[in-house]
Amino acid sequence: MLQSLEHVQIPVRRMDRAIPWYVERLGFRLQGRDGDRIAFLTLPEGPMLMLWETEDETAAKFAVNGTDFPVLLYRTDRIHELRDRLEACGAPIQAYRDEGMFWVLKWYDPEGNLWGALQMNPSREEASYDV
User: Fold this and answer.
1) Are 109 and 117 in contact, with CB atoms under 8 Å apart?
2) In which order are the strands placed within the sheet that holds 29-34?
3) In a 3-state reduction of DSSP, which class is residue 12?
4) Could you tell me which residues come within 8 angstroms of residue 36 by beta carbon, excluding any fewer than 6 positions away?
5) Which SS3 state, helix, strand or coil, does residue 119 take?
């Protein structure tokens, strides 16, 4: 049966624009390329992010009752700094709010993919997954 998440894949229309954006804005590291259409990016923790260049009009997101939701959701301890950085570079912010248990930030990258990041509120982290 399944053991772990190996990597996630998202579409990009322009690899030459996507790689620098993810590296400079989000802190990914370029691990390698497979030709011109595929790139492998990593963070210190978590699965690899695989970028696929495509001419198709597609993006990593889904909708619930007409509202877009991110497929990619990351954890950070610098959510306010991340929001400032994204806002400074013109990334459309969909959500930025304190949800009680955590802060949530959702934004669109230049490729149209919807991303999300969570920062646990310290007083609530212990109870974050008590259901």
Assistant:
1) no
2) 7-12, 48-53, 38-42, 29-34
3) strand
4) 15, 53
5) strand
Q: pLDDT 10s per residue in the chain (131 long)?
A: 989 889 999 999 999 999 999 999 999 999 999 999 999 999 999 899 999 999 999 999 999 999 999 999 999 999 999 999 999 999 999 999 999 999 999 999 999 999 999 999 986 545 444 43
Tokens of 29: 């590291």
- Report pTM: 0.88
CA geometry: angle 93, 52, 12, nearest 5 deg = 30
Scan for tokens 């497929």, then name that residue: 71
Residue 63 in 3-state DSSP?
Answer: strand
* Contacts with 30 (C-beta within 8 Å, 6 or more apart), sequence order: 19, 23, 39, 40, 41
* Rounded Cα distance, 56 and 64, in Å: 22
**Whole-number Å distance between alpha carbons of 113 and 88:** 18
| Residue 9: both structure tokens together | 């894949």
